[in-house]
Amino acid sequence: MPTETAAPARHTAFEDAQGLLAGTLLCAFALRMLTSMGLVTGQTAGLGVIGSYLLGLPFGLVFFVVNLPFYWLGYRRMGARFTLKTFACVALLSVFSFVMTPLVSFEVLNPWLGAVMFGLITGTGLLILFRHGGSLGGIGILALTLQESLGWRAGWVQLGFDAVLFAVAFALFSPLTVVQSLLGAVVLNLVIAINHRRDRYIAT
């Protein structure tokens, strides 16, 4: 006789709060590692990193401003709860990035190992944010909106954006720097692709 499966329990407000704090702190540390090596990454964070290099402004400030246009799309596509959590994540990452700069430095950090560790740490941080209903906004929201309105596959939209971003990076940085940056982006995307499975979640 089939048994009735209980619905998974939702995360409490406290669990969500610690999850968003932990996830953004991990991502901020990884981005500090990335920028200390002079590397770049993809998506909106990559746009913020390149913008900070070109403008000479703190990453946190550029990243926060770059994300502003995407909140309306997030509200329409994902609702108020997701948008508020995403705004909180972006704000926390921006603040943590300011705080990390004077507190964290690396005397020795091999760029190849640093790129891999950036991908692993950022991927872990993002997974925590996803599990608690947040994100770091930006291109992912735009990609989902275009998929819904125009039928464009979200994955291809994000891939196309990253292709343009890294093409710009090739014009601004040495080929070795861009290749090392690509390694970090590949590791990051593998962590998300392998572990971000909604059908395996226990709580949301």
Automatic annotation (TrEMBL):
GO CC terms, sorted: plasma membrane
Location in the cell: Cell membrane
Membrane topology: Multi-pass membrane protein
Keywords annotated in UniProt: Cell membrane, Membrane, Transmembrane, Transmembrane helix
Record-annotated membrane-spanning stretches: 20-41, 53-74, 86-106, 112-130, 178-195
InterPro entries: UPF0750_membrane, YitT
Record-given protein name: Uncharacterized membrane-anchored protein YitT (DUF2179 family)
Organism in which the protein naturally occurs: Pseudoroseicyclus aestuarii
